[in-house]
Specification:
16% helix, four-stranded antiparallel β-sheet, 36% strand, alpha+beta, 601 residues, eight-stranded mixed β-sheet
Length: 601
C-alpha cells in the first residue's frame, strides 16, 4: 500500500536561485542533506556541489560577487525568520557570518547585493530598531558598515545602480501598496520616483545606462503591468499591460534581452523581448504550472527558472531564448509513485453570495466510485494564490490516489485577480471571505460525484484561520474533519504578538487591537470555539514568530476543557512552515492519514 512518502519529491528546492555573472553556474538551495543548504551546479549540466552544511539553518536567498568566486546569502535558524547574512566561496569549509545580532533580521536586496565593482554589500536590517529596516552598506575587505537610510517604515531594498552610486528601494504606504525611491550611497539623499497615486511598485533591474528602473506596478491599473520608471523624473513608460499580473522580470546585463512572466489564472506564461529590435523572442508555451525565481544570462542567450506542474515537483529549468527549447537541469521526482497516474486539475468556478465568481482548481480522481469525499484546501496569505503545481510536495496527489478529491479555491483576498479583488479581505478576515468558503461547500454538496457528508478542511496560516472559522462559525455544514496548520485563532492576540516591523501592516490588513478589538474578536474563531464539534488536527511550529504557538494553545485548551478530542502536534524545531525533510514527511504523513480516516468512503 502506498503512503505519502512515495509521493514526496526526491529533492525539494527553496524558492531562490542565483545565476553567476558569467552564466556558467547556478546557485540554489536544496534539501539533499535534510535541510535547505546552498548548492552550486553548472548550467550546462553535471554534478552539483553542496557548499554549506547546515543542520539547523535554512538558506533563504543568495547573490554572487561580480567575480563569480563567492556568494553572500541569508539563512535563519530553526525557522525563526530572523535571517542573518553569510559569505562563502565554493570550496570553503565554513561560511563566514557577517551579521550576528540576536533577535534582528537582515535581508539581501531583491537584485544584486554586491556593488558593480564588488567592493560593497548592500542589505537591510532592523538591528537598530526592531520596527524599522535600515539600508546598510558594508565594505567587503574591512567589514566597515554605514547606514545610508534610517528614516523608518516598511522598507524593501531593490539593487545597485549600474555606476554604484545609488540603491533603489520601496517603502510601504498602506496595506501592500508601496512607492519607489532611490538613495545616494555617498550622502544618503533620497528621492521618490513613484507616481503620485497609491499603487504597488515591485522593483526590478536597472537599465544598463542607469536611466531607469524596470518595475512591475498596478499604478492606474487593476493588474500589475511591466514598465520603466525614469530614474531622474519618475516618468512611467509601459512595456506590457496584460489583463493579468506580471509577476517576475529580469534583464540581461548587456541590456538587450528582457524576460518576464505573466500569471494567467494561476498558470505561468513566459515572455521575452529583444529591446534593441523590439522583437519578441521564441519562448516556449510552458505546460500548465508555475515558474518563478527567473534569471537571465548576461548575454541574453538563456534564462533559468524554478518550475513545477501538478504532476512534476519543483525543479530548475533552462530555456534557450534563441530556440525556445526547455532543458531540465535537475530531476526531482516522486520517491516511488507513478506520475503517469496523477490527477490533472480542472479550473472550475462557483458563484458566491454577492454574485462574484470564485475560481478554484479541482483535483478529482475519476477512477473512484462516486460519491467520494472532498478536501476544501485554503491557501495562506491571504495575499497568495492557489497555483497548479505539485502542491504541498505531492500531498494533493496522494489524497487523490486514496480516493479523495481536492477543491482549492482562490477566494476574495487572493492575488492574481486584480488589486480590488485582493483588497476585499482587508480588515475583514472572517467576514465576507467566510461566506466564499461556505459557498464552496455548497458547490461541493451539489456535485453528484461528491459525498456531502464527507467534506473536510485543510489550511495553513491564514488558511488555518479559515479552517478554524469554518468549523466554529459554520457548524451547520457538518464538516467531516479539519486540519489547521499554524492557524491564528484570535485576531487580537495575533496582532498584539506581531513583531514590531510588521505591526503597521497588520493594523492595515487585519486590524488595530487598540481600537478594533471588539470587531476582531467578533470575527475570531476563538469566540465561537464552543461550536466546534468536528474532528480537528492542529499542527504548530514552536519557533513560529508570525503565528506564535499561543494562537494554537488557546484554542486547543478551550476544546479540551469541553472534552472535545483534538490532535495537537507541536514541532520544537520548526517555525512558520516545514523546513526539515523528516519533519515535513512526518507531519504531512500524519495529516494525510487523519484526513483519509475521516474522508475516504
Amino acid at each position: 500500500m502506498s503512503s505519502y512518502r512515495d509521493f514526496r519529491p526526491t529533492l525539494r528546492f527553496q524558492a531562490m536561485l542565483a545565476l553567476s555573472p558569467d552564466g556558467q553556474q547556478v546557485a540554489y538551495a536544496d534539501d539533499a542533506a535534510g535541510q535547505f543548504n546552498l548548492t552550486v551546479q553548472p548550467v550546462a549540466g553535471g554534478s552539483s556541489r553542496r557548499i554549506t552544511g547546515f543542520q539547523d539553518h535554512t538558506v533563504r536567498r543568495a547573490s554572487w560577487h561580480p567575480d563569480g568566486m563567492s556568494l553572500v546569502f541569508e539563512a535563519d535558524h530553526k525557522g525563526d525568520d530572523l535571517t542573518q547574512l553569510y559569505l562563502v566561496a565554493p570550496g570553503d569549509e565554513e561560511p563566514q557570518a557577517i551579521t550576528e545580532t540576536v533577535g534582528a533580521q537582515f535581508k539581501l536586496p531583491t537584485g544584486r547585493a554586491f556593488s558593480p565593482d564588488g567592493q560593497f554589500i548592500a542589505y537591510e536590517g532592523n538591528d537598530r530598531d526592531p520596527a524599522d529596516q535600515d539600508i546598510i552598506v558594508r565594505t567587503v575587505k574591512t567589514g566597515e558598515v554605514r547606514r545610508i537610510y534610517t528614516d523608518g517604515g516598511r522598507m524593501s531594498l531593490g539593487g545597485w545602480s549600474p555606476d554604484g552610486s545609488e540603491l533603489s528601494f520601496s517603502l510601504g504606504t498602506g496595506g501592500y501598496d508601496h512607492v519607489l525611491h532611490v538613495v545616494s550611497v555617498e550622502d544618503g539623499a533620497v528621492r521618490r520616483l513613484s507616481p503620485p497615486e497609491n499603487a504597488s511598485v515591485y522593483l526590478g533591474p536597472w537599465l544598463p545606462d542607469g536611466s531607469g528602473i524596470v518595475v512591475r506596478t498596478d499604478a492606474g491599473r487593476e493588474f500589475k503591468g511591466l514598465a520603466v520608471i525614469n530614474a531622474a523624473d519618475g516618468h512611467l513608460t509601459w512595456l506590457d499591460t496584460p489583463d493579468w499580473d506580471v509577476e517576475s522580470v529580469t534583464l540581461s546585463a548587456n541590456g538587450r534581452v528582457l524576460v518576464w512572466m505573466v500569471n494567467v489564472d494561476g498558470a505561468t506564461e513566459l515572455h521575452a523581448r529583444d529591446l534593441t529590435t523590439g522583437d519578441d523572442l521564441p519562448v516556449p508555451a510552458l505546460p500548465l504550472g508555475q515558474a518563478d525565481e527567473l534569471a537571465v544570462s548576461a548575454d541574453g542567450s538563456f534564462a533559468v527558472m524554478r518550475m513545477s506542474t501538478p504532476a512534476r515537483p519543483w525543479n530548475i529549468a533552462v530555456v534557450d531564448l534563441a530556440t525556445g527549447a526547455v532543458r531540465w537541469l535537475t530531476d526531482s521526482r516522486p520517491e516511488a509513485a507513478d506520475s503517469t497516474s496523477f490527477v490533472e486539475p480542472t479550473l472550475v468556478h462557483y458563484e458566491t453570495f454577492d454574485g462574484r465568481t470564485i475560481p478554484a482548481y479541482l483535483y478529482r480522481p475519476t477512477d473512484k466510485v462516486a460519491p467520494i469525499g472532498v478536501l476544501l484546501s485554503v491557501h495562506g496569505g491571504p495575499t497568495y494564490q492557489e497555483r497548479p503545481v505539485y502542491m504541498y510536495d505531492g500531498f494533493y496527489q496522494y489524497l487523490a490516489s486514496q480516493g479523495i478529491a481536492v477543491l482549492a479555491p482562490n477566494a476574495r483576498g487572493s492575488t492574481g485577480y486584480g488589486k480590488p479583488y485582493q483588497k476585499l479581505v482587508y480588515r475583514d478576515w472572517g467576514g465576507d471571505d467566510l461566506k466564499d468558503f461556505a459557498h464552496a461547500a455548497r458547490y461541493l454538496q451539489a456535485q453528484d460525484w461528491a459525498d456531502p457528508a464527507k467534506i473536510g478542511l485543510f489550511g495553513a496560516s491564514y488558511g488555518g484561520f479559515v479552517v478554524l472559522s469554518c468549523l466554529a462559525r459554520l457548524p451547520e455544514i457538518d464538516w467531516a474533519a479539519g486540519v489547521s496548520m499554524f492557524g491564528p485563532s484570535n485576531l487580537v492576540t495575533l496582532a498584539e504578538a506581531t513583531p514590531k516591523a510588521f505591526r503597521s501592516l497588520v493594523a492595515e490588513v487585519i486590524g488595530d487591537p487598540d481600537t478594533e478589538a471588539d470587531r476582531m474578536l467578533a470575527q475570531s474563531p476563538i469566540t465561537y470555539a464552543d461550536q466546534i464539534r468536528s474532528p480537528l488536527f492542529v499542527w504548530q511550529g514552536a519557533r513560529d514568530t508570525r503565528v506564535p504557538q499561543g494562537e494554537s494553545d488557546q484554542l486547543v485548551d478551550r476544546l479540551r476543557a469541553r472534552g472535545v478530542e483534538v490532535r495537537y502536534d507541536v514541532y520544537p524545531d520548526e517555525g512558520h512552515g516545514l523546513t526539515k525533510t523528516e519533519n515535513q514527511i512526518q507531519a504531512r504523513s500524519d495529516v494525510a492519514e487523519f484526513l483519509i480516516a475521516h474522508l475516504r468512503n
